[in-house]
Amino acid sequence: xxxxxxxxxxxxxxxxxxxxxxxxxxxxxxxxxxxxxxxxxxxxxxxxxxxxxxxxxxxxxxxxxxxxxxxxxxxxxxxxxxxxxxxxxxxxxxxxxxxxxxxxxxxxxxxxxxxxxxxxxxxxxxxxxxxxxxxxxxxxxxxxxxxxxxxxxxxxxxxxxxxxxxxxxxxxxxxxxxxxxxxxx
Length: 185
Prior knowledge:
Layout: H1 5-18, H2 22-32, E1 38-41, E2 53-56, E3 62-70, H3 79-87, E4 92-98, E5 106-111, E6 117-119, E7 127-131, E8 149-153, H4 157-163, E9 171-172, H5 174-182
Parallel strand pairs: 3-4
Antiparallel strand pairs: 1-2, 2-3, 4-8, 5-6, 5-7, 8-9
């Protein structure tokens, strides 16, 4: 005899809702960062492509912010998200956070002073992903770890899709990205 469907379905829905996606963690980081921006999260499943956040800054300007998280240099945007940013190139931004641990089965190692490899948490540009057998990527924004953050204008969306993080951002680092959004006119 099988178990009723409703409790199983309820467990799946509750379990899914309690899972923290990397973008949700990125949102918490932005929301908790001290700034003069008023943030509103847009929870919208009815209209695809609408950005994640609506911001309002000290210059009395509204803008949208799409949050993206990636393990590699490629940034994945849906066709609807691309279309939104093409239609609204001004007042729309894309904030991308890249994991320090890039890809399954990799860990982040850096060159030590002796020339060998050592685990470390120095500046992300000093890191090289080196495969470690049997180690799985934890992914997500982990507490106490700085992840590279990049800000792009909505008008850069097609280049961002083509070039990924090789595209020159308008700001790097959370403090710099927030400063650009605070001063947006």
